[in-house]
Amino acid sequence: MYLSTIGRRDHAQAGSRRTFTAVGANVFALGSVSLVTDISSEMVTAILPVYLLLGLHLSPAAYGLVDGLYTGATALLRLAGGYLADRVRGRKAIAGLGYGISAVAKLGLMAAGSSAAAIGAVITADRAGKGLRTAPRDALITLSAPENMLGRAFGVHRAMDSAGAFAGPLVALAVLAAAGAGAFDAVFFTSFCIGAIGVLLLVLFVRDRRTARPPAGTVSPRAALALLRTAGVRRLLLAACVLGMSTIGDGFVYLLLQRKEDIATGWFPLLAVGTNLAYLLLAAPLGAFADRVGRLPVLLAGYGGLVAVYLLLASPLRGWPLFALALGLYGAFYASTDGVLMALAGPVLPEALRTTGISLIQTGQALSYLVSSVLFGLAWQVWGATTAISAAAVLVLAAIAGTFALLRQARA
């Protein structure tokens, strides 16, 4: 029995070492940065809907605008950051600038007070940081792992990222428990301190993958625009836009769940914990599964899970089993789609313009998401929550069909 236990332990350790070697140490370093940064970000994200709707009494339409800004308004900076990273061949430096801006923005939330305009400006700055860092970070992942392991590499990274997202709301809850239910400034300051640690980890442990300088003209505005003439890139961009238009913000999902189950405000941050736990457990296995069976089927199955979540929110059913199912499916949706879409994009894009191409696809999705959030907030206010979320489910079904039509010839 003892020898058998040792054998199983050694086998598990060998498997862990093989996974580490396959995806690369740089992927784990980037995952560590994302883990810490997501603790910082999700501390704020978890309390933001309550802070804005219940604390500042914004309407659903106003919240939809702010939520759209939170993800989409700075989308063009993704393009700027991606192009600049390719141009100067300094992906780590551009990513570090983005992480730093987002960390400092948490202090801006303390200074904004109850001004909706100031809060919107600070949120825009925070998302500017995310816009700058996301494409260079994902490009580093594609350059740090073999092409046939990209699904697993993104899965491992997203699993570590979601571990931070899982912990962030718990840290926010602990801060509020220690400082008082309305002590949002304490959450913002703690978030800044943790974000600063993430920047330090990036500086110390992430290696930039500097490739040979490409020939003159390879990285230029004209070359970047030429990406759109590539059929594979064009299809991916259109698919990303279609999918972004069908997706509403996490805050809306959690607010609808809160209304359905009448959850106390103090427990609101735990809703994100349930989603991120499922994401954490499923991201790496689903990334590896996508490498084996095809990334497009896994991507579309993830959006099928999103349809189920929206239908559960629209249904008259109640109860904790339904509640747990909705959060689990929501986490599975993210695990099946977030890194998998980037793994689909990696092999299609030329290495010299890898970051620019990734940022182009992410920008299209983010801008579509901005429109979706604003429209959903208006639909909720005009038609009511049930009709709005039912319409969203129909849109996701249409997006699945459209994405399949666009990408069915993909071989990644």
Automatic annotation (TrEMBL):
The chain crosses the membrane at residues 20-41, 159-180, 186-206, 236-257, 263-284, 296-314, 320-345, 366-383, 389-407. PROSITE patterns: MFS (PS50850). The keyword Transmembrane helix applies. Residues 26-411 form the Major facilitator superfamily (MFS) profile domain. GO terms for cellular component: plasma membrane. It comes from Amycolatopsis xylanica. InterPro entries: MFS (IPR011701), MFS_dom (IPR020846), MFS_trans_sf (IPR036259). It is a multi-pass membrane protein. Keywords: Membrane, Transmembrane, Transmembrane helix. Its main location: membrane. The keyword Transmembrane applies. GO terms for molecular function: transmembrane transporter activity. It is found in: Cell membrane. This is Nitrate/nitrite transporter NarK. Pfam families: MFS_1.
